[in-house]
Design a protein that fits this description.
There is one protein chain. This protein has 438 residues and is α/β, with parallel strands linked by helices. It folds into three domains: 229 residues, Rossmann fold, CATH 3.40.50.620; 79 residues, Glutamyl-tRNA Synthetase, domain 2 (Orthogonal Bundle); 116 residues, no CATH class. Helices cover 44% and strands 12% of the residues. It is built from 19 helices and twelve strands. A three-stranded parallel beta sheet has the order 1-2-3, with helices on one face. A three-stranded antiparallel beta sheet has the order 4-5-8. Bound molecules: glutamic acid. The site of glutamic acid has 8 residues, from helix 6. Glutamic acid binds next to helix 6.
């Protein structure tokens, strides 16, 4: 059984970029019958808000990615203090006094000399007296002292990775104002919650190297890490501002279905073909992190459209009854209406369009050369209630009288009755037309 977590900062909405992270962690936990934790990384009190935390929960719930437990980092400051103390006592956390400007200057100097901009550890050379003195005048921050060896792990996606700790600055774990930084908080949580698997974006690879050492210094078990590639636009360009920040709320408002989005995301960038799954259990069963590659992954919103359409066409009326009621479709008509319409819409929002055609009719679309033909058709329209045989009987009559057949028979009728060239099976639609404006 695996324990995973999705750890967004409540400083914005879930967008297509971090949805992958949420989904992969969810699927790993579910596939193994384990636990999926929602962790809110809210240690930054200025940027984190309750509204965003609620919005994240709402979006995950809409997707059906239900968490077993929710944890907030702001509730766990005691634990971070405890871990920091443990690291201090073992000589792995040290106090530094450089200001941001001084650090920046050091970095620039190193770069000018062609050296990597790694923190020079000059704080470690301070004497106790110097430290006392500095404390009187300056805020101090605290860095984790890396063990300068190679850090190796078997990444679930990237394979064997090895990072030289000497090429990385000792990470700051506590800021000058006392705020615990993500690096410590995340490690402390992962250890405390028994996280066994962590999937996150490849922008976290260096963090992982340092976090592995911190976990070990705290005596915790190192989770199994996997870093997924970052998304690009459909032509391989960096994910545009618009797409990069495309939130789930935007997708929802555009009528994309959760199962279509999740099916797409669960295969995008993997060696397996994208296919539509009906439910999350099947999705989890068929998910395998080792099928994903390191290459940047092309994201194309247009690919979710056919999946949404296909998903909708499989829905039973019970799964759309709210939408039908909201649209004002009477319950006696609803079953036939749904069967007629479900193969002909891209999103649920289009239900309204077809209902308006049925209930209010349309201004008929009649080409010049069809005016007479439509007049004849009108005169042959049966009286009384229509059923599914009406269309066939009516068009046979029209065919007899006018001699038209095939497309030249059916298309003008469709256009006159619905105002457009494509749409549902007319034999199913005709009995549902409550107003015919021929
Ligand atoms: N809050 C971090 C982020 O959103 C979490 C990263 C992690 O998974 O450890 O980047």
């Amino acid at each position: 059984m695996k324990t995973t977590r999705f750890a967004p900062s409540p400083t914005g909405y879930i967008h297509v970029g971090n949805l992958r992270t949420a989904l992969f962690n969810y699927l790993i936990a579910r596939k193994s019958g384990g636990e999926f934790i929602l962790r809110l990384d809210d240690t930054d009190p200025i940027r984190s808000t309750e509204e965003y935390a609620d919005a994240i929960k709402e979006d995950l719930a809409w997707l059906g990615l239900h968490w077993d437990r929710v944890e907030k980092q702001s509730d766990r400051i005691d634990r971070y203090n405890f871990s920091a103390e443990k690291l201090r006592n073992s000589g792995r956390l040290y106090e530094c006094f450089e200001t941001p400007v001084e650090l920046d200057l050091k970095r620039k100097k190193q770069l000018n000399m062609g050296k990597p901009p790694v923190y020079d550890r000059s704080a470690l050379l301070l004497s106790t007296a110097e430290i006392q003195e500095l404390r009187l005048n300056r805020e101090s921050h605290w860095r984790f002292k890396l063990d300068l060896s190679r850090i190796n792990w078997d990444d679930g996606i990237l394979g064997d990775l090895s990072i030289d700790a000497a090429s990385v600055s000792d990470p700051v774990l506590i800021r000058g104002d006392g705020q615990f930084l993500y690096t410590l908080a995340s490690v402390c949580d992962d250890v405390d919650f028994g996280i066994s698997n962590v999937v996150r974006g490849s922008d976290h690879v260096t963090n992982t190297a340092t976090q592995i050492q911190i976990i070990e210094a705290l005596g915790g078990d190192v989770p199994h890490f996997a870093h997924h590639s970052l998304l690009t636009g459909s032509k391989g360009e960096p994910l545009s501002k618009r797409l990069g920040t495309l939130s789930l709320r935007d997708l929802r408002a555009s009528g994309f279905e959760p199962m279509a989005i999740l099916s797409y995301m669960s295969r995008l960038g993997s060696s397996e073909p994208i296919e539509l799954f009906d439910n999350l259990e099947d999705l989890a069963e068929n998910f395998n992190i080792s099928n994903f590659g390191a290459q940047p992954t092309k994201f194309d919103l247009n690919d979710i459209i056919p999946l949404t359409k296909k998903y909708i066409s499989t829905l039973d009326i019970s799964e759309v009854s709210d939408d039908l009621i909201k649209t004002g479709i009477p319950s006696d008509i609803a079953p036939k209406f749904w069967i007629m319409v479900r193969d002909n819409i891209n999103t649920r929002t289009e239900i309204k369009h077809w209902w308006s055609i049925c209930s209010e009719g349309v201004a008929p679309l009649i080409d010049e050369e069809d005016i007479e033909f439509i007049d004849i058709a009108k005169s042959l329209l049966p009286v009384g209630t229509f059923d599914e045989s009406t269309w066939k009987n009516w068009t046979s009559e029209i065919k007899k009288v006018t001699g038209r057949k095939g497309k030249s028979l059916f298309m003008p009728l469709r256009k006159a009755l619905t105002g457009i060239e494509h749409g549902p099976d007319m034999s199913k639609m005709l009995p549902l037309l409550q107003k015919i404006n021929l």
